[in-house]
Amino acid sequence: MKRVVMIGTDPSTRGGISAVVRTYREIGVFERWPVTYLSTHRDGGYLAKLATAVVALLRFCFLLLRHRDGILHVHSASRASFWRKAPFMALARVAGWPVVFHLHGGGFARFVNNCGPRARAVMRHFLDHAAAIVVVSDRWEAWMRNATSNPNIVTIPNPVHFQPQATVGRGGALIAFCGRCEEGKGVYELLEATASLVRLLPEVRLELAGDGELHRVERRASDLGIRAHVHLPGWVDSERRDALLARASVFVLPSYAEGLPVALLEAMAAGCPVVATKVGGIPDLVTDGVDGLLVPPRDPVALAAAIRRVLTDPELALRLGGNARATVAAHFSPERALERLENLYSGLGARRVPAPAAIARLQEIS
Questions:
Q1: Is the pLDDT of residue 158 over 50?
Q2: Taken in order 344, 349, 354, 359, is the CA torsion positive or negative?
């Protein structure tokens, strides 16, 4: 049976790729298909990260020797994430294994443009020779078709679990954000927008759920005079995240670049009205004025105006939240992602694990 070796960040690690991998595992990908997952990255210090990558590479060499026929499925973003995966892709090519390059990171286009000619040639080589390239939105597919001569590009939107019930009639003025608190996520523009809103709506509160530049964020909130309105709980688990999305008046994601952000999908699945920037795959997910509001990146004035619309118009908020939930249910269910992924694996010669074997087989995540 052709082995599928999937590599990416450790599923227990924080971030979008790990969330997608966890969902794949939960919906049965690792039981239905002969998948071995190798973690090439995890949270921690430099030595822990280096050890994780080295151990994964050694394990992959062992699998190449043990299985003559296989598929390498690479979950990658930009910068270090891509270069960590490059040795795996090179070894797979030498062994004759087809490579599935699965792009998640919204900053990949900028990463490619900022690289020197030799690095860009290496990236182009891997893209051109991949058996398939997976992207997460139609806009990323259009970009990829201009970046590579490879015709085998497939769009598989990030799956998200659809909650059975959504909160109706959200009150208050709670702005929610989930993700890494850093410049590229537009957090500082969100603080500026919140400061202008507090002058008009003193009850406004902002909850930034995530790790990152928390001390810098706290200082900036103090400088803007809104420290009492900003809550920084740090990174939260899925239960606390769901509770936040259930009570939030609006979810805001003002990123500079994105693929198809899982946090935004989760907020929409919870029926929370959303405000986001028109970057990456977000316009493929959110139709402005229908299931969310879209604003330009790096524009705190436009961001504040959109948030204010949601906070001061309950009918608009209810309509946006209901439509967002319907959009996720129709287009981003785990079942739809599973169908497209299984078609990809089948097309590359992999076969489903027989049902009794799937139940008995233990999948290792390490």
A1: yes
A2: negative
Our CA angle for 292, 341, 26, nearest 5°, is 75
Would you state the structure tokens that stand for residue 331, as one six-digit string?
């287009």
Q: Could you read off the pLDDT of 49-78 as tens digits, one per residue?
A: 999 999 999 999 999 999 999 999 999 999
Q: Which residues contact 313 (CB under 8 A, 6 or more apart)?
A: none
- Mean pLDDT over residues 2-8, rounded? 96
- 3-class secondary structure per residue, 276-287: EECCCCHHHHCC
H-type alpha helices, the chain: 16-26, 29-32, 46-66, 80-95, 108-114, 117-129, 138-147, 187-200, 214-223, 238-247, 262-269, 282-285, 300-312, 314-331, 334-347, 355-360
In the structure encoding, which two tokens stand for residue 148, read together? 């590579």
Dump pLDDT digits (tens) for 7-18. Answer: 999 998 888 889
- Distance CA(307)–CA(287), nearest Å, equals 16
d(CA 163, CA 177): 19
> Phi and psi dihedrals of 230, rounded to 5?
-115, 125
Residues in the chain: 366
> With a threshold of 0.85, does the pTM exceed it?
no
pLDDT tens sequence across 210-222: 999 999 999 999 9
